[in-house]
Amino acid sequence: MSYLPRYNIQESYRWNYEHAPEPVEVEVPDISGEWFYCGLPIGSPLGIPAGPLLNGKWVRYYASLGFDVLTYKTVRSQSRECYPLPNLQPVTCDQLTGAEKEIPATDQMQGSWAVSFGMPSSDPEFWRQDIEETRNLLPKEKVLSVSVVGTEQENGTLDDLADDYALCAKWAVESGADAIETNFSCPNVCTSDGQLYQSAHEAAVVAERVRDAISEEVPYIVKIGHVADEIPAAFLLEALAPYISGLAMTNSVAAIVKQTTTLDEELLFDGQARGICGDATRTASIQQTELFSRLIAHRGLTIAILGVGGVSQASHVHDYLNAGADHVQVASAAMVDPEIAIKIRRDWNAGSN
């Protein structure tokens, strides 16, 4: 059973763009202490990653609800439609390790879901203007980060892909982005634009090109996928270190999703692995945060860690910070409950750990 109704893809995507809620006026509790996002001062360690923030209206809505770093949905140098429905399928499983072959689908959201959007993007003419307007309307103390991805072309080279990443990053900065995030991990695409983190050399080629295209003063973050072993983690870190300000992890844990009915079993998404997001990724993401934090400290690097995965309460934020994260992002829980940042702030101030 699909979690979402099967209406026209283009209409549903456009509907979400055009029907973002207005910013709300609500009391947002402060969180004491000094907090930074890759060197930029912020009011709390709470942010929201690319995904829920389809455009500037969505950015401003979540900003009004207590998120201090807003990551604009991944954009490309050309428009691309969303993958077919179902593209947001609830699953039921324990904490994932990355070794799971199949996990069961369910018809009710239980904290985790398989995501299969395929990194769609609006046209550059739209998103460039939208980012400029959003930065002008967003409170000055909020940070607007923009996620970008290169688009692989038929018979294209790594240099072509790197140039496309760099072009998107340059456009985003020119439009007013405070920070740039390049998406090097998307389990829902089979092309190299979604798998760069798995090749340290190729990731470094793209990262260098992006850094050359933007000012050294602009924080540059690379989003990576699940890396559980120390050796590939160390290779990736050393390859990226000369160019980046931070690492965002973990962009889901991939698994095949199986739907079982009284009549038969079916592998969803044509039997291809899809990124599992939400509660089930928390343990793996915290362990990865610990791994990279240790590697960064051992090498004396000044690279921030952005913890992502399964955060839904104040204690989860503390767990990430204790593991070495400098900043924590909330996605699935924020989509289910937009007021989650306010609740986390209240529990934080009440001493919930």
3D structure, described in words:
Mean pLDDT is 90; it is low at 1-11. Helix 4 (158-174) packs parallel to helix 5 (200-213) and helix 6 (230-240) packs across helix 7 (282-298). Helix content is 33%, strand content 20%. It has a single domain, classed as TIM Barrel. It is an alpha/beta fold and 353 residues long. The longest helix has 17 residues, at 158-174.
CATH topology: TIM Barrel
Radius of gyration: 19 Å
Biggest sheet: strands side by side, in what order? 3-4-8-9-10-11-15-16
Structural class computed from helices and strand pairing: alpha/beta
CATH structural class: Alpha Beta
Number of strands: 16
What string, H for helix and E for strand, traces the elements in order? HEEEHEEEEHEHEHEHEEEEHEHEHH
Instruction: Summarize model confidence as the mean pLDDT.
Output: 90
| Unreliable stretches | 1-11
Strand content: 15-25%
Describe the largest sheet. 8 strands, parallel, barrel
Distance between the termini: 37 Å
* Count, helices: 10
